Fold this sequence. Notes:
Blueprint: E1 2-6, H1 10-21, E2 25-30, E3 46-49, H2 53-65, E4 70-72, H3 81-91, E5 94-97, H4 103-119, E6 126-133, H5 143-154, E7 161-163, E8 175-182, E9 189-195, E10 200-206, H6 211-224, E11 229-231, H7 233-237
Parallel strand pairs: 1-2, 1-3, 3-4, 4-5, 5-11, 6-8, 7-8
Antiparallel strand pairs: 6-9, 9-10
Helix pairs in contact: 1-6, 2-3, 4-5
Amino acid sequence: MNIALFGYGKMGKVIEKIAEQRGHQIVARVNREHPKESFDLNNVDAVIEFSIPEKAKENITFCLENNLPIIIGTTGWYDHLTELTEVATRKNGAFLHSTNFSLGVNVFFELNRQLAKIMNQFNDYDASVVEIHHTEKLDAPSGTGITLCEGLIANHDSYNTWQNVKKTEIRDHQTLSIESLRLPDVPGTHEVKYESSIDTIEIKHTAHNREGFGLGSVIAAEWIAGKQGVFTMQDVLKF
């Protein structure tokens, strides 16, 4: 298939490598020097978007208006999700979004949901989330961290919201702590903890490099071919 990359930084180059290994062709590499309007996109089968939060809405709208299926790896734009879903419906378009395209992280999301259902029976445990990324990460908390919080809250009666502070700074017991740390050269680490006076139960995902994100986004691009609607990696992986 012919793939256009909207965003050609470190992630774009990883996606390019993986896509070509899987037999696909990169026909457009969009960045500041080469805007999307400068390319002929008529032969594009799918767009993979890893740009910046400020450009995501514009890029998604452009693709929907031009009948281009788009895979969105950028986070920080979800305030516009309802609006863009309406555009997709009106245009019979397709886009697939995920806060994290790593196959391992999506398994981790499912483990988080199932663990929250189990821990909902035990009131002596306090939950918290920690997310660690590289210093170039623009949003905090990360989209992955937010998804973990939302998955936990949806399956645990003790929490109804989250706050991006250390656990020791939480004053309302119904607020879930998510702490964001930014360290050099960290692709991404996420931890969910349940702590009591007796013990600690935790699950953790550690990315060793960016290739997991790239592979998942290419698999999503392969999956979305011929489809209409708004999807997530849960659809791709059939969770």
